[in-house]
Every structure is written in structure tokens, then in C-alpha cells.
Amino acid sequence: MGRNGIFSGWTRAGSQRVYVRVTTAMKERAASSNGDGLGYEGPPIVLVHGIGASSRSLKPIIHALGEEHAVYAPDLPGFGLSDFPIHPLDVPGLAEALRRWMLDNQIVSAAVVAVSSGCQVAVDLAARYPELVERLVLYGPTIDPAGRGPLRLASRWARGAVFASPTLAAHQVHDLIDAGPWRAVRSLKMALDDPIESKLPEVEAPTLVIRGRHDQLVPRSWVERVAELIPEAELASVRGGHIPGPRAAARLGPLIEHFVFDPQEEPAAQGGARGSRAGS
After folding, report:
1. Most exposed of 3, 62, 142, 156 (fewest Cβ within 10 Å)?
2. Using CA of residue 257, residue 232, residue 51, residue 161, what is the dihedral sign?
3. Architecture of domain 2-278 in this structure
């Protein structure tokens, strides 16, 4: 099904159906390739949505990355239109499901771009299966140790609501209906219990850590700490909130493209955050 430049449909991961969004141009290229590959330069990009959301929330990023790259945005199991597991999956379970989907769809190495609590899934994947993650982009990584209480998290969400994109707010309501309140709450609790800080030092992929300047959910100090804990990481910021809407995604797209497809030379000394970038 194609609409507004995005094609969506089901793929497989084992016996489970996984709903995926790609650009219409990519779908058309695949249809005319006769099995000879898509012909894109550089690694494919796999987008990872936040827990409780779906790839609907990633449409602005899909558009921002344009038609020059292979971009996949799957719905994780239990969210969006993908099949539901019997029980909600914790962060390692979601990372394992993403790994299975990648391998079953011949994506053996990718640039993984994650948003919000999707960063926890991406970090778990990168830490345990480094061969699958060529480069890693974390936008608004959650959840910092100081924010793991439900009341503290709710307070931050409330402060950030004023900066939320109206379009994305409608997507979030739709995603909640799809997942069901019970599954969404259970999944959020498991995300709160996931110690991302213990996994960050195990990430081998070069990583770009990005914070929206109006993000009330992710403190600047935490984003800096994330970059410090990853052996090879750099920081960036863009104007935007916790989930990038169309305007923030338009600024985010060039940052991702430069980092993935035109990386700077590696620094002589490794360890900790190596630099900073800023989107206009």
C-alpha cells in the first residue's frame, strides 16, 4: 500500500508478520530490479521506533532521508500492525525480534537509527550483535536513571507536550489503540527496568547521539553521559522535541546522511565523546 511517498506492507520474521514502511521509490526500484539488488550505495538504514509507538511516528524521518537510500521502518512485535507475541517483549526480546527480522530479510549489516525508547532496543542489538550494526544513531535516548520513576517520567512528558507535533500526537493515539493500554503499560514498565547505561560501553559501532533542544524528557546531562559511555561517539543537537516532527526531521536528515554516508576521519585518540555537531 503506497501513500504520500511511503509504501507499507507485511514482511516475515520466522512465523510472525512484521509490518514495514519504506519509500515508494524504494518499492518501485525493488520491483524493477529482477533480483539483482536495489543498487543503493552505502548501508541500508533501519529505523527503530519507541516502545509503545510504531513506525507511523517515523514517517517524517523516512521523508527526510529522501529517495536516495534504502530505508526500512518496521513495527516491532506487539506494536503498530505487526503480529502480537503472546506476552509483551522486554527490551532484549524486542532486540532479538529485530535481529530475526533483519536476517530473514537479508539485512546483514545496517545503520540503525533509533528514537526515544527505541534507542534501548538499538543499543541492546548493537551490544549483543555488533556485526549487524555498522553505524548507530540515537535520537533522544531513554531512560536515564533519574527518570525511571513513573511520576517523574509523567511530569517530564507533561512539560514536553507543548513542543509536540500535532501530527505526531494523532499518531501516538492511534499507536496506543493498536497496542492496547495493557500492553503499552507493561512494555513501558519493562523499558523503565532496562539499565541502558550498563550496555552502552559494549557498543562497538561509531555512534551519533542527538538531542532535540526542546526535549523535556531527556536531560542534556544524560545525553552527554550516553556519549561518554559509548567508546566511539559524538554529540549533536537539532531544534525539536522528544519525537522529531516534520520540521525537526528535515534538520535531522542531513545529520544522519552525513554521519552514515560521509563520515569524518576517525580521530587519532579513541574513548568518550569525540566531538559535537549542531543542526540549524
Report:
1. 3
2. negative
3. 3-Layer(aba) Sandwich (3.40)
